[in-house]
Amino acid sequence: MSVTRRQFITTGGAAAGIAVTALTATALGASSATARSRVLTTPTWMLAGAGFANLAAKSLGGDPAVCRRAFNTGRTWFITTYTGDTTIPSPVPAGYTGVAVLKFKCYQDGSTGLVDALAAGLPSWVTAVQYDAESWAQTPDLEQGAWLLNPHTQTSYAQLFCATAHSHGLKVVLTPGNDLCNNSPNPAYPQRKPQYPVTSKDAGQNYNAFIRHNMAAAAQYLQPGDIFEYQAQQLELDTEAYTTVTTKVAEQVEAANPATLFLAGLGRSKPPSDGANCADLAAAATGVADTAAGFWLNVGAYSSQVRPMICALRKLGY
């Protein structure tokens, strides 16, 4: 179900008591017009090393020249996921400069969490670490329910992740999924209660609950130059909803920590594709050009995903 700007404000905004702080030119460091130009010409990009390879693969409809123009500016954060292998190579492509990111889906699970990797010894190339907490098996139930400070655990795993990473001199990327807000029983908590439930106030949508629960408040734990990315890609087929919801999250991030880089998700990397075409992706990106400092691009090894993303990048000037 898509949501219009009016529906969002009525059901997920004012009715839910969300305090909205308008973005200011001072906070963003530029006027809206200047910010729009900045985002489209010198954005901060984030993408998996595998996603980059897909976009550069001519066999999938990729374009190495577009990739060089977009991603070889030193402002791209290249990601690879930690699986317990300390010999994993850097995700930064040969001949490129950028930030090398090691992604984690949990803080600690005994094998693939940040704490586990630090104990095993991080690869020397790691500059930044990403906490991609979502409603999936790789993020422990306890962590899913305590993204923010939880009275049961007396902790916030986003805070723990940031504090641990910063103590080791690492930059941090926070990318919580909308699906942390759900009504599934959570066995790690009393009465198996979901900790970030979706209610009638949210019109049944987890992205509205994400805002009502102020999940973006975790940006307070970030340091200047760190990234908070909102996974907006589930809304990319509806430009108005994508713009409205992403802007609300950006406002919450800015209120929590104005020094944070705010990125929005764009593209889907797993089948089935949502069918987003070139126009959909370009419209979504330009719709938040005065809000986001850049984008996390998700692209699988499918021409149906690569071709539209390359086309959108060309439309954005690359």
How does this model look, in words?
InterPro entries: TAT_signal (IPR006311). The protein is of the alpha/beta class and 318 residues long. The protein has a single domain (27-315), classed as TIM Barrel (Alpha-Beta Barrel), CATH 3.20.20. It has twelve helices and eight strands. It has helices at residues 5-13, 25-28, 32-41, 49-56, 64-71, 114-120, 141-144, 157-167, 206-212, 239-256, 278-287, 303-315; strands at residues 44-48, 76-81, 99-104, 128-131, 171-174, 227-230, 261-266, 294-297. It has an eight-stranded parallel β-barrel, surrounded by four helices. Helix 10 links the parallel strand 6 (227-230) and strand 7 (261-266). Helix 1 (5-13) packs across helix 9 (206-212), helix 9 (206-212) packs parallel to helix 10 (239-256) and helix 11 crosses helix 12. The longest helix has 18 residues, at 239-256. It is globular. The two termini are 33 Å apart. Mean pLDDT is 89; it is low at 1-39.
